[in-house]
Every structure is written in C-alpha cells, then in structure tokens.
Design goal:
The chain is an alpha/beta fold and about 280 residues long. It has 7 helices and 13 strands. The strands form 2 sheets. It has a 7-stranded mixed beta sheet with strand order 1-2-3-4-5-6-7. Strands 8-9-10-11-12-13 form a 6-stranded mixed beta sheet.
Length: about 280
C-alpha cells in the first residue's frame, strides 16, 4: 500500500486493476476491488490497519470485468454509475469465465469462474458527493473507456482516481469504449483546475501531466486512423494494421508484446464493428 497523501493510498500488488483507499473520519472509501477472494481478504486486512471509522464503501470506476468481478468479496456497500448496473443486469447471474481473447487480467485466473455478480447498492447518473468528515469527495461520470466510467475527485487533497481514462505503459481496452468521449475526458485533465493534482491511473498508479498529454495524442492518432478506414469502407480485418504502430508509441515489457497485440486485435475489431458497421454488435469485455 503506497501513500499518495497522508490519508490516501494506492495498491498495485494484486492481479487486476490498481486499487485505492481514502481514509476518512467516518469510514474508508475503497476504490475498486481485487480479482480474487484471497486478495480481497488480504486487502481488507491491510485497510483495517489504516481505518479510522466503522463504515466502508466500495466504488467501481467502470464495468470492466477486471474491475467488478471481485466486488462481492469486499463485503461492503457498492457504489457505481448506473451504466455499470445496466451492464451487470445484461449478464447471467454467474460469471462463466470463458476467455474472450481480450487479454484482460481475469483471463489469467480461472478460479474467478463461477463468481456470482454483485450488483451495486447505490448508483448515480452524473455526479455524487460524499461527506464522511475530512475531505469532501466527488464521484463524476466521465465516459470513454466504458459507458459507466467515473472519476473520484478529492479537491482538498488534490488527488484524482482516473480508472482506465489513463493506462500506464499498456494499450487500451477498446471493445466497449468511445474514443471521442475518451479523448474529451483526457482533455479535461489538462485544464488549469487540475494543474496541481496527483492523477492515479486505474492500471499503474500515479502519472504526470506529460503522460496524460502523450496518451491524448495517441488516442487522437488512433481515432483518425479508424475514421480513415471507415471512410474508405475498409473491412474490420484492416484494423490489424494499426496494432504495431500503436505499440510502437508506448513503453512496455517486451515479454508482454503478444498479449498487448492481442488486446488491441480484439478491441479494434469490436470497436470498428460497433461504431462503423450497421450490422456490428456490441460485445462485453
């Protein structure tokens, strides 16, 4: 558990997404959940050593399976955007765990198969404010990575949990995304309001404004290329030509190249079909 400020922490040691915690006098706000039950138990124990209040609330920052499959194991109130609830409602009651080829983290952990989905107890549409003493907390809807993607903003501490809006040294998950909305969300991070903020990525931890600018340009490049393919009526298979150029823009462990190429192959194909082909069908991550 690494500190961002005295009472705000992040954790990258568990499989899945980057976790977070905001310790308040009235309780602990938990940002996302580990994939596995054993990791959830360990994370809860770690949080107990920091907690000051009796209450706990979990916020899932979007509906990606990496982010929501383990929410049940946290055993506390779950808050999400209402689109996350809609996504969960579209699934069968039990997660079947059949690999999709999306190169998501959960695909490496077959033990998550058979988990029952845990629907949120509280949802919001645009913005929600929490007051448990100490710093006020704002949860805002910022779609792009996912229809239900949200941010957690702590103005007094100048900290912002971004979910998948920014990803550290890895390609995006595109299957349920909207690049125009995603680019717009990243643009918001570049306004003076957030100049002194610490940004905490949902896949990698704290990032600086330089990284935000780079990803903004990468996504603009990708969107232009997809628009160009669509304008000339290219088939979805042509999106594969974008994989190597995109990977060339980011720094990552070479051992992950095949996995990241597959992530883009899967995501680009489904993105193109959903946004540019009349017969395209939406797919889940």
């Amino acid at each position: 558990m690494q500190p961002v400020t005295e009472n705000i922490f992040y954790e990258t040691d568990y499989p899945g997404v980057t976790l977070g915690a905001v310790i308040l006098p009235g309780g602990t706000l938990i940002v996302d959940a580990p994939l596995r039950a054993e990791d959830a138990r360990a994370w809860k124990s770690a949080l107990l050593t920091k907690s000051r209040g009796a209450h706990r609330m979990l916020i899932s920052l979007d509906a990606h399976t990496d982010r929501i499959i383990g929410t049940r194991y946290m055993e506390c109130t779950l808050l999400t955007h209402r689109e996350v609830l809609n996504t969960i409602k579209s699934y069968t009651a039990v997660f079947k765990g059949q690999p999709t080829g999306s190169s998501s983290e959960w695909e490496h952990y077959p033990e998550v198969s058979g988990t029952r989905w845990f629907p949120p107890n509280i949802t919001f549409s645009q913005q929600m404010k929490l007051h448990w003493g100490g710093s006020g907390i704002i949860i805002e809807h910022h779609p792009g990575p996912d229809p239900g993607a949200s941010w957690i903003i702590i103005p007094d501490e100048k900290v912002l949990f971004l979910g998948d809006t920014i990803l550290v040294d890895q390609p995006p998950f595109l299957a349920t995304s909207s690049l125009p909305q995603w680019i717009a969300a990243i643009s918001e991070l570049r306004v003076p309001r957030y100049r002194e903020y610490t940004f905490v990525s949902g896949r990698g931890g704290p990032v600086g404004i330089e990284y935000v600018r780079e990803q903004h340009e990468h996504f603009r490049w990708l969107h232009r290329r997809l628009e160009s393919l669509a304008a000339r009526g290219a088939p979805p298979e042509d999106t594969e030509a974008l994989i190597d150029p995109y990977l060339g823009k980011i720094n990552f462990d070479p051992a992950l190249r095949n996995s990241y190429a597959q992530r883009l192959r899967y995501g680009l194909d489904r993105y193109y079909r959903r946004h540019y082909l009349p017969e395209g069908q939406e797919t889940s991550k």
